[in-house]
Structure formats: structure tokens, C-alpha cells
Design goal:
β6 and β7 form a beta hairpin. The two termini are 29 Å apart. Strands 5, 6, 7, 8, 9 and 10 form a 6-stranded mixed β-sheet that branches. Strands 1-3-2-4 form a 4-stranded antiparallel β-sheet. It is built from 12 helices and 10 strands. It folds into 3 domains: 59 residues, no CATH class; 136 residues, Alpha-Beta Plaits (2-Layer Sandwich); 84 residues, Arc Repressor Mutant, subunit A (Orthogonal Bundle). The longest helix is centred in the middle third of the chain and has 18 residues. The protein has 298 residues and is an alpha+beta fold.
Amino acid sequence: MLKDLSSLFPSYHKFSEYPNNTDKDVHTFHDPSSNQWIQIKKNEVSSRDFSLLSSFYTVVDLTLPSDYSLSERWNRFLQGSGELPIEAGKKIRIIQLVIKSNSFQNTDLAKAVQLFFEDAVQLVFVAPNNALLIEQKSTYTQSPEDLASFISALESDFFIKAQLFIGKFYPVDEQTPSRYALEREWFSNGIGNYFPGRIYTLESIFPTILTNEMSESLRQIIHHEVLIPIEFDTELLQTVRAFFENGFNASITSKKLHIHRNTLHYRLSKFQEITGISVRDFGGALIVYCASLLVNYE
């Protein structure tokens, strides 16, 4: 990939160490696999090119002000070019933020993080519309509900729309940058392929990853056993999907779908009658869950 870029972008240049220049007219990317940095002049990169490059490499912001020193230490460490910012062995998780608002200010996000989390997390700016929340393992960790409240506060109080990915806790060591790169890939996969949402985890996007990797023969089985018999009825599929996602709990499912429990039971029974697949057990529900993902993308 690196060799091909030189023929596409005349100004393409790569570095084996973190670039020292702060030229605002270039895009800078980091390749975690080779631990190299790439710079290309902005006037050579279309929006489509930038999206593609961002999916392969980490976007690096070299223009952040000097008062973000700790943020920059984390940034360099996670890109594989710096020393550990904290004591080795301490457990951290990385919560990735993608900002959907184009006019937000870094200072607004920093203020929001300070007000909401105080000193519980370290804010790290990695690109103009990307930031990280580094959380150390402690007696209290931020729950998904806490993070959902933070996203809501960003939107209501600071007019900042964002999506986030909650990473796993791991000890800080030399493997941390590669784990972070893998979680970045999962987040990108989730945003690109998953149903719209604000909070992502590996658990929530794994069915999508699995479905995307599914062989053509398995796809055909789902088509013939599920989709064709119900004539691609998305209402039925989404009902079963919701039943699965809510732990086979009829009360919660009907409430979230805004339907009566009798309507829910009618749809589930109708599906089983047509396909012969019971959605009240894990195996049947899993097949239909995958079917709902396939019909959403095809």
C-alpha cells in the first residue's frame, strides 16, 4: 500500500520517526503496521481519498497547541513512537470519540470532559474530529449509561454530536498501540456497516463483522430458509432482532417497539409458522438476526 501511494500523490513522503514539522498544508497519517508516518499535500487529497486513507491509517494532528503535552505523549505512544505515559502494567481502556459536528472547538470538548468526568479520564486529541478518553481501572468505572449521558450532554449543552466506541481494559505495555489500532478498525467497521447508533462495543458490532465475512453458501442458506419464505418482510425481521437483543424478554421488547405484547407474540408465531424456525431459542434467533443484517445491506 505504501509503495502505491507514491504514484498517486506527487508530494507523498514517508518518515520512520514522528514528523517535527507543523505544516498546515499537509495531511499526516501514521501506519501502525510499519510504524511509519506519511505526509501528503492537502490539495492533492480529495474527500474520498481522505476517507480511504483514514480507514487504513491513523490521522495525526501536528498542529495541536503545546498545552496538550500529556495528550501529545499519549498520542505518540499510541502511534508507536513514544514512551509509556503512565506506569507499565496499569490497566486502561480507550474510549474513542468521533465528532460529527464540523464547527466544534477543542476547548469546548475539553470543558465538557472536565465537567462530566473531572479527573477520571484523560482527554487525548488525535485528529480534528477524533479524540480519545483514556480511563484507568479503578473502584468505579464509567458504565455505558454514564457514557450515554455524556454523549447526550455534549449534544444538549455544547451542540456537539458524537459517536463513541468503548474499548476493553488492558494493562499498559508495548502491545497497547496494536490493541488500540485493532479497536480503531472495529469502530470504523461499526460506523461503516452497523445500524446507526451513538455507542459501539465489540459485542455490538461483532454480528455485523461475522455477517460481512460470511461465505456465499451460508448467505444462500439464509436467503432460502428465511428471507424468501417471509418475502423479505423487514417488520418481521426487526421484531425478531429486537426480541434477540433484549434477551428474549417480551415485555421489554414490546415496550421498545411500541407495540402490544399480543402483537409481539403474533409476529413471532407468524414467523415460526412460515419458516419453521423457533425464535424463542438462541440458535433460531441467531439465524434470523444474521438475516436481518443481510437484508439491511443488500
